[in-house]
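Weekly puzzle thread! Below is a chain. First person to post its structure in token form gets bragging rights.
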Amino acid sequence: TVGAGLRRDFGQNGVVVSASLPLPLFDRNAAGIARADAERRLAGTGVRQTERDVLLDVQLALNTVDACRARLEQLESTYLQKARESRDSALAAYRSGATDLIDYLDAQRALRDVQRAHRRAQFDYRASVLQLEAAVGASAGDQHR
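Winning reply:
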């Protein structure tokens, strides 16, 4: 910086001219270092939050797959077989004249309801697998089932 001015000392007048040149001999750029350190910590916090979000998404997708698989297995092992047996029994009873046609039709309707629920469970299971694959960044061709 360059400066100029007037000076008066006990009746004497004078012109003062000054020039200064800053030399960073003892400047360790503490402010810049502190700012960079704060930015680094902030970025690290963002990375950890993103990692937690991804892990949560994967865990939720995995839980959904497990729940859908359990529902599908329950329908296949219990309800679907029992509905078929009930329908077959109602058909045999109708053919032998022990029951009315309406009983057989009710059993047939119940079987179709269970089959519809089974197909919906299959769809939900497959959709949940796709969600899990999306959460982990894989595609159906990447996994060996």
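Puzzle host: Confirmed. Bonus trivia for everyone else. Residues 65 and 128 are 5 Å apart (CA to CA).
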